[in-house]
Recover the amino acids of this structure.
């Protein structure tokens, strides 16, 4: 594949527009490959970008250490990324309205739950692949009278921006932007920028 190849895992009905390959468990229109996030059907180092928008909360809990589905999914993203490639993911925050609003959600997250991806002291069961943290952001969820986030973003974008800056509302989603270290790089300390 080309250097600009991008994989969207769990693309569903709303794929990432940057994706050149769209993978999902179901045959939604536009899905180019059917498969599982736990066993990506691609060669090592195939993509420069891997995205997983609202996917990881659907993984079943269980297993131990490296056998856990969440560890395996992140290891698969690492495997198919080129050195220096990026992994973007988002999941509902445990306090957000979307966390328990979908009966297929099996996992619930807070930002610190992902530290094991870049911090070698955080989880001794996941010492194998440490990412560079490029960004971590928590969006806010607002309800004002009959209006929710979508209404505010569309009809009152300035009010939405002010409310987000003032941290009004509940946490909504956790957004992570990670980078696989380059081929000659060795990780010795955690990357703490942008937390």
């Amino acid at each position: 594949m080309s250097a600009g190849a991008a994989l969207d895992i769990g693309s569903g009905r709303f794929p990432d527009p940057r994706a050149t390959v769209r993978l999902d468990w179901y045959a939604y229109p536009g899905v180019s490959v059917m498969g599982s996030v736990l066993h990506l059907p691609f060669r090592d180092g195939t993509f420069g970008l891997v995205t997983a928008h609202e996917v990881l909360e659907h993984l079943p809990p269980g297993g131990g250490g490296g056998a856990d589905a969440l560890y395996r999914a992140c290891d698969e993203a690492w495997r198919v990324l080129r050195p220096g490639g990026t992994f973007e993911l988002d999941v509902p925050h445990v306090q957000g309205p979307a966390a328990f609003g979908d009966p297929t959600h099996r996992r619930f997250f807070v930002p610190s739950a992902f530290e094991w991806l870049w911090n070698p002291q955080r989880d001794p069961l996941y010492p194998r692949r440490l990412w560079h943290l490029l960004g971590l952001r928590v969006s806010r969820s607002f309800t004002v009278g009959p209006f929710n986030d979508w209404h505010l973003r569309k009809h009152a974008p300035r009010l939405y921006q002010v409310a987000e800056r003032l941290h009004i509302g509940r946490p909504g989603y956790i957004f992570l932007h990670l980078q696989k270290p380059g081929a000659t790089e060795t990780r010795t300390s955690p990357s703490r920028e942008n937390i």
Q: What stands out?
A: The beta strands are 6-9, 21-24, 33-34, 47-53, 81-92, 132-141, 170-179. Residues 69-80 form the longest helix (12 residues). The chain has one domain: 6-140+171-179. Helices lie at 69-80, 149-155, 157-165.
